[in-house]
Design brief:
alpha+beta, 14 helices
């Protein structure tokens, strides 16, 4: 209460008290005609007036003091109430500000924060960035009591709920981490769900709090890696991965099957451990020139197995680079083509050599003649062509049979080769 109001009330109270006393004195000096003895009547009357007005003054002042106290009390309460209202407004403003900051903070996070009812699984809270993930506002999600269960993919919901039940039975000992598909508009996203239980003062679960993280791209990458690993392990071709310096850091099972070297035996070694010595130094220099120039090389080489057996390879070597085009690995992929080379050699022998005698046949002779004639025509060298005929060969066939004739041809060709080289 302002001090001037208190002073004014006190002034009027004192003035009223003084006026009442003065009025009581005036009445005491005037005699009452009803009394027989003027002196007696004056005395009695004065006492009655003094008592009546004294009581009146006391009551009036008590009332004034009471009113003064009430006014002071109301003023104090109003002041406290005003302060409480100001504090409430400040707290509310601070709460709104903090909530806005929290919403902005949560919205900037890649994870969606949420809380569920532990029994009905209804969403009680979900951060505002759920709009980016699910295409729905937070209020829309919270209004649907079955949104979480209905949003999970049909192929995943049974497993997710069963896992959660087992987690609840165990007493929710730690963070439950699950991955499943969840609806996002007309599409499905893979999310990683991390869920924890919140307990009340009685030790009962009051809330389930968790976070969703979109792992769709990570899941696709993981699937691709698993596919690549499966291809790597199950490929029929041998595969070896080396460092830029040439040390082998990984092989597949086909590598062991083809070369005979186990993983423990070959890791850390250089691929030259397989060299058979058939290729020249110039061959390898040209091979690496192509790899450094074009990033890959493909061709046929002869290598050596662990047991020393030489075998043919169809080999491809490719350089693996990082984002700065720096070579970080080399990958070699090869297949055993020894049988194929043997078949090719047999076919070539059949095509150019006589099956009985092993001598060059007419096709081989024609090609050889064309080659030597072309060289002789430019003066590079001279050559001699001799023509031989076996007289009486028909009689041998007719007399002793074709088997004997074949034996004759084989023996003649052997002697010719021994003489002519």
């Amino acid at each position: 209460m302002p001090r001037w109001i208190f002073t004014l009330i006190l002034f009027f109270s004192c003035s009223s008290f003084a006026n009442d006393l003065a009025y009581s004195s005036e009445l005491a000096r005037e005699p009452d005609a009803s009394f027989a003895d003027p002196a007696t009547s004056k005395c009695v009357f004065s006492e009655m007036v003094v008592e009546a007005y004294t009581l009146y003054v006391v009551l009036i002042n008590l009332a004034v003091v009471s009113l003064l106290f009430v006014c002071w009390y109301i003023y104090r309460q109003n002041k406290k109430l005003g302060q409480a209202i100001d504090d409430l407004k400040t707290a509310k403003s601070l709460l709104v500000k903090n909530r806005t900051q929290l919403d902005v903070l949560l919205s900037s996070s890649p994870a969606v924060i949420y809380s569920l009812d532990p029994e009905s699984h209804q969403v009680h809270f979900i951060s505002m960035n759920c709009k980016k993930l699910y295409g729905l506002h937070a209020e829309e999600i919270k209004k649907d009591p079955k949104w979480w269960v209905n949003a999970i993919h049909d192929e995943d919901v049974t497993k997710v709920l069963a896992t959660m039940r087992q987690w609840r039975v165990k007493g929710c000992p730690e963070t439950l981490i699950t991955s499943y598909r969840i609806r996002s508009g007309t599409n499905w996203l893979w999310v990683e769900d991390r869920l924890r239980a919140i307990y009340d003062e009685n030790g009962q679960i009051s809330e389930l709090v968790g976070s969703y993280l979109d792992i769709t791209e990570r899941y696709k990458s993981q699937q691709l890696l698993e596919l690549s690993a499966s291809v790597f392990d199950n490929a029929r071709e041998g595969i070896a991965i080396t460092t830029p310096e040439g040390s082998i850091i990984e092989i597949n099972e086909a590598f062991t099957r083809i070369t005979g070297f186990s993983r423990d035996e070959i890791l850390g070694k250089n691929p030259r451990i397989l060299s058979s010595g058939r290729q020249s130094r110039e061959f390898y220099e040209e091979m690496w020139r192509q790899i450094l120039l074009h990033g890959f090389w493909e061709g046929e080489v002869w290598n050596k197995r662990k047991d020393g057996v030489i075998f043919a390879q169809n080999l491809t070597i490719a350089a693996v680079t990082d984002s700065n085009q720096k070579v970080i690995h080399y990958i070699s992929l090869f297949s055993d083509i020894t049988r194929q080379k043997r078949n090719e050699e047999q076919l070539a022998h059949i095509a150019y050599f006589d099956a009985l005698t092993g001598l060059p046949n007419r096709t081989n002779l024609t090609q050889s003649l064309d080659h030597h004639i072309a060289k002789a025509s430019v003066g590079e060298h001279e050559f001699v062509l001799a023509f031989m005929d076996l007289d009486g060969f028909k009689e041998v066939n007719d007399t002793f049979g074709h088997d004997t004739g074949d034996l004759l041809l084989v023996e003649v060709s052997r002697r010719m080769q021994s003489v002519l080289g």
